[in-house]
Amino acid sequence: MNKNTPEWLKIARELHAMSQVGLEYAQNGYETERYVRLRELAAEIISKQSMLSEEEIQESFAMQPGYITPKIDVRAAVIRDGEILLVQEANDGRWSLPGGWADVGDTPSEAIIREVREESGYDVRVLSVVGIYDANRVPDETMMPFYHAYKLLFLCKIEGGKIRPSHETPDVGFFELNELPPLSKYRTNRGIIEDAFAQADDSSKRTVFE
Description:
Blueprint: H1 7-25, H2 29-49, H3 54-62, E1 71-80, E2 83-88, E3 95-96, E4 99-101, H4 108-120, E5 122-134, E6 149-161, E7 171-175, H5 190-201, E8 208-209
Parallel strand pairs: 1-6, 5-8
Antiparallel strand pairs: 1-2, 1-4, 2-3, 2-7, 5-6
Helix pairs in contact: 1-2, 2-3
Keywords: Hydrolase
Family: Belongs to the Nudix hydrolase family.
Protein name: NUDIX hydrolase
């Protein structure tokens, strides 16, 4: 697991994963009771370290039954004339690469094409994979989400459309690397933006992975 992940979050994630797997394969009521208790402990740990209540966390856990695996976050790096496309996130006012959780039924490239269109108004074509990252590699440990996730970053090219903000992304713009706005670190950090510029400048660069 990422070395920047705080110990409390490592423990909570492991307890949550154990509880979900256990609930999936529990053979009797006693086993189910034990695994439900593990899930409650995970929620209690996270609640004490965040602004979320145990009830909110439990509700979120309950929405993802079955064998638990990392979630997939897809992001697009759209670079035009030396500037990168960013969208402003409504829930924190900060900026990120367009993207979000991949939906069941989509290929990764279909997911990112849809996300860019919905969040920015642009139609894009996927050129390459910039990197595959541990999405929880966030400099500020207090901002880490409690779900483990992988981030897939695609280099994309605009094929059509025009800037069109949405209710989730009230502003859209292009920014130079040395003039980035405040980033929404849950979603985008400077390091992956630098990787995107590096590949855009040199297509022979290999995909970054962790």
